Amino acid sequence: EPEVTQTPSHQVTQMGQEVILRCVPISNHLYFYWYRQILGQKVEFLVSFYNNEISEKSEIFDDQFSVERPDGSNFTLKIRSTKLEDSAMYFCASCRTGNTGELFFGEGSRLTVL
Amino acid sequence: KNEVEQSPQNLTAQEGEFITINCSYSVGISALHWLQQHPGGGIVSLFMLSSGKKKHGRLIATINIQEKHSSLHITASHPRDSAVYICAVGSNYQLIWGAGTKLIIKP
User: Fold this and answer.
1) pLDDT by residue (tens digit) across A29-40?
2) B74 CB near a chain A CB, below 8 Å?
3) Which of A48, A103, A110 sits opposite B33 (nearest CB)?
4) How far apart are the first and last CA of chain B?
């Protein structure tokens, strides 16, 4: 069964370092999302991506964050200069038909900023 | 006020019991999702609803658009159903997530 894959599963980094989280969505999906979940808190929307551009982004998704789809298969989330409060589980998701489609999630990438 | 409210926050039940988890929302939506998050953190989509009722195995999800309310039911609950169940509503390509209901089914 097709699945969304994320790498790395866990990354530890020093504050101020750049981090790239990678996602490979399901191949025929057109809509891609990043969410994050700080430990013990609810999941929060970061950004949605369609047709090679950002469709929507939340207040969390400030200038430190960027997304791109560099090669037609990977979907990456870059955090330019990590802060302690960026420590969270980051989930990538994809779906075929946008808001009304079933979402498929990756297993998540746990980011720990020291 | 939270845009998505779930109740109860925590629920412990005995194996075999009928489980109901409720979700109320205050925003206009195009779809409502029920998701399951296991202790390891992984998230699985259970249902996506825009109207009516859906059933998958022992799980049933209903939505009342006029009342902005949805319920997730689990029949003949089993310890493997223990997880956090999350309601999320979709508008404008983003999902607004509820805080989740932590369900524990005891054998």
Assistant:
1) 999 999 999 999
2) no
3) A103
4) 37
